[in-house]
Amino acid sequence: MNTIRKVALAYSGGLDTSVILKWLQDTYACEVVTFTADIGQGEELDAVRPKARALGVREIFIDDLREEFVRDFVFPMFRANALYEGEYLLGTSIARPLIAKRLVEIARATGCDAIAHGATGKGNDQVRFELGAYALWPEVKIIAPWRTWALNSRETLLAYAQTHGIPIAKQKNGGSPYSMDANALHISYEGGGLEDPWWTPPDDVWRWTANAEDAPNEPESIVIEFAGGDAVAVNGKRCTPFETLDALNRHGARHGVGRLDLVENRYVGIKSRGCYETPGGTILLKAHRAIESITLDREQAHLKDEMMPRYASLIYNGYWWSPERRALQALIDATQERVNGEVRLKLYKGQVCILGRRSADSLFDAALSTFEDDHGAYNQKDAEGFIRLNGLRLRTVARRDLG
User: Fold this and answer.
1) Can you point out the beta strands (E) in 213-350?
2) Are 36 and 155 in a shared domain?
3) Which of 65, 168, 314, 334 is the most buried (most CB within 10 A)?
4) Does the pLDDT value for residue 43 go beyond 80?
5) Set 179, 188, 272, 359: catalytic member
6) CB 18 within 8 A of CB 47
7) Side-by-side strand order, sheet with 237-238
8) Do 133 and 195 fall within a single domain?
9) 179 noted as active-site residue
């Protein structure tokens, strides 16, 4: 690390990375290149360029990655119906491999000796960024200030920022802001009062979604069209991947859909409490499972469900670029060829309900499933032998156990 002359920093413009930018300059006497990914976080990017320039940065990259993010990362993940620990839609986790990819590309293109990030030594993001970087640049040097410096709390960071004239947004009461992460899929909140799992988040924690009690009193019906497992249209309007997710976010947020208060198990072994808003993702997951219910064969669907926890853990733990995730993705994608059709949903007071689903590739056969006369489509007498054969081992065990 003594030979570091130029560093590419993953820079959000927030408290941590603003302090890190100045700290890198002072600690290594090096030039810093900043990279900020526009992955749908919106107005947070407005102040990034002037803040970086004010700190002497000459090469500032702010890349619009919104379409790539949704097309190549979010949508493939939703083909798997991925949920970590049964609830978390992986909004932060799925953004990290893309940021790592572009950070490495910029570092190599600008002749940097190392990359740097603002993830703490207690969290998951350090693992995600660094595993991604190593997978794409095996010899990369990585600077993780949170693991080496003495600024070990958000209050000391705020003091450092004040000393060095770095402007940082604060809460009205003057305390530290929540640690937030926003992108086209979600917003997450950690820290502050959320560190007490018994503490109830006040209404001002939530920035995106309406409170369900204050949401419209009239439900809204929407139709999502799928092609090859991906959502391609909302209410008949064809959209790009980002436009599709953005539209679902607006519909869901208006009706209070997608709030989650979760205590999760971090990869490093720490339990962490976070609040999440994922309105479009919540709708998309429900709709995708609905269209799969009529287009996937039973064993395909069950195999996907068996693989899903493993797949979700790989993403959560930072293994997006691993050979095992790629192999699982290939299998998952192979199941999606016939996942085409439309799903109609109702949004109301924080809830997402399926109203109907249809597909030209549907496996649903009303002649087989009807409770009315099926005109010989299914011979019910066949079930007797089916049941007796499947019950043979149970009867064998019972004879032994009952003597």
Assistant:
1) 220-227, 230-234, 237-238, 259-265, 271-277, 341-348
2) yes
3) 65
4) no
5) 179
6) no
7) 237-238, 230-234, 220-227, 341-348, 351-358
8) no
9) yes
Indicate the range of 9-23, 121-135, 303-317 predicted with least confidence: 9-23
Catalytic residue among 79, 96, 273, 289: 96
Residue type present at position 24: L
396's CB contacts (< 8 A; 6+ apart) are none
In whole angstroms, give the CA distance from residue 204 to residue 202. Answer: 5
Active site residue 261: no
Assess if residue 13 is contained within a domain: yes
403: pLDDT confidence band, cut at 50, 70 and 90?
confident
- Beta-carbon count within 10 A of 287 CB: 25
Query: At 314, is the secondary structure helix, strand, or coil?
Result: helix
CB atoms within 10 A of CB 348: 18
CATH number of the domain encompassing residue 55: 3.40.50.620
96 carries an active-site annotation:
yes
C-alpha–C-alpha distance, residues 251 and 282, integer Å: 11
Instruction: List phi, psi (to 5°) of 321.
Output: -90, 10
DSSP 8-class letter at 88: B
Side chain identity at residue 42, one-letter code: G
Q: Which of 16, 113, 181, 246 is catalytic?
A: 16
At 120, list the tokens: 């703490």
Spatial distance between the Cα atoms of 205 and 259, rounded to a whole number of angstroms: 11
Is 382 catalytic? The answer is no
Going by their DSSP bridges, the two strands 220-227 and 341-348 should be labelled as antiparallel
* pTM to 2 decimal places: 0.93
Close Cβ partners of 337 (under 8 Å, ≥ 6 residues apart): 228
Which among 125, 181, 230, 246 is annotated as catalytic?
Answer: 125
Residues 6+ apart with CB under 8 A from 382: none
Q: Which amino acid is at 20?
A: I
- pLDDT (0 to 100) of residue 1: 59
